[in-house]
Amino acid sequence: MTQRIIIGIDGSEPSRAALVWGMNRAHREGASVHLVHVVDDSFLSESPVFVGEARTAAERIAAEEKSVAEALGLDVPITTEVVIGNPAREIERLSTEASLIVLGTHKGAKVPAALFGTRGIKIAAVSHSPVAIIPLNDEAKRSGVVVGVDTSEASERAVQYAAAEADRTGQPLIAVYAWTPPVTPGLEYLWSEQLLTSQNETAEEAMAIALAGLSERYPDLVITKKIVQSPPIAALVAEGKNAQLLVVGNRGRSGLTRLLLGSVSHGVLNNISCPTLVARTE
User: Fold this and answer.
1) H or E segment and range at residue 55
2) 139, 275 in Cβ contact below 8 A?
3) Considering only CA atoms, which of 238, 268, 245 is closest in space to residue 144?
4) pTM for the whole thing?
């Protein structure tokens, strides 16, 4: 079955960045693109006149964005859809038939909030497919696929996704393990040579487990391991400043908690420094 990439559009500059990124990815993967504009009905009057005007304006945006996509000159099938409803709920519904959701964000750039700017985190939490959040920045000098390593299931899934992505795109895989010393009552941190040795041993063990089998599965993949003394969010954001892609995990929880990402993934998206992909645990 042909892969289908859904790109959220709203006519803004961040949305346009996501459109270009998603189109180029679809071209590389031989996927089709479905452009979706969601009119948030929470801001609409219930009057049929207002709803009709909102739909007309949305259809105009969809047509304009499709023209922009076609002007890129890529051999990618493009369809459009206008939906009136809750953006997170509608994208979640559409994600069941998507290989990837691509959204723009105003975070990481000095521009006003876009439709999918602050909602990208919510959508990433509920989506049934991976979600890529694209900031406004230049990818020309970017290199490497960065992924955080710990002992969680979410991290394990992120590492597997990042490795496949790096191998497919010919990029090095950069695995980052970040740690901070424990806080001691009455003191800021507890430091000792024993602590440093223990942390390094824990980090090396976590790296070995997380990266096991990747060299055999991807013999041409270059893997770089980085162990840093830093809060995980800060470490990943810093490493992402020069990366082509940063991959984080989604805990894949159920019930009301599925509306929340893990704290690291949430923090990375709030301080996004490069195209960031949220991989599903399932």
Assistant:
1) helix 48-71
2) yes
3) 245
4) 0.87
C-alpha to C-alpha distance for 132 and 145, rounded to whole angstroms? 13
List b or e across 193-211, with b for residues whose CB sees 16 or more CB atoms inside 10 angstroms. Answer: eeeeeebeeebeebbeebb
Residue 140 is assigned to a structural domain of this protein: no
Phi, psi of 120 (to 5 degrees): -55, -35
pLDDT in tens, the chain (282 residues): 579 999 999 999 999 999 999 999 999 999 999 999 998 887 655 665 567 888 899 999 999 999 999 999 999 999 999 999 888 899 999 999 999 999 998 764 443 333 344 577 888 888 999 999 999 876 668 899 999 998 888 899 999 999 999 999 999 999 999 988 766 555 555 666 777 788 889 899 999 999 999 999 999 999 999 999 899 999 999 999 999 999 998 865 444 344 456 788 888 998 999 999 999 755
Same domain, residue pair 164 and 262: yes
φ, ψ at 231 (rounded to 5°): -60, 140
Gap between the Cα atoms of 95 and 72, Å rounded: 25
Residues spanned by the domain of 14: 4-134
| Domain end point (choices 134, 162, 179) | 134
**Comparing C-alpha atoms, which of 110, 44, 265 is closest to residue 281?**
265
Task: Collapse the DSSP code of 202 into the 3-class scheme (helix H, G, I; strand E, B; otherwise coil) and give the result.
Answer: helix
- Judge if 167 and 262 occupy the same domain: yes
Report the C-alpha gap between 121 and 132 in whole angstroms. Answer: 10
> Are the CB atoms for 143 and 172 separated by under 8 Å?
yes
No. of helices (H) and no. of strands (E), the chain: 9, 10
Task: Record the tokens describing residue 232, joined without a space.
Answer: 């995980």
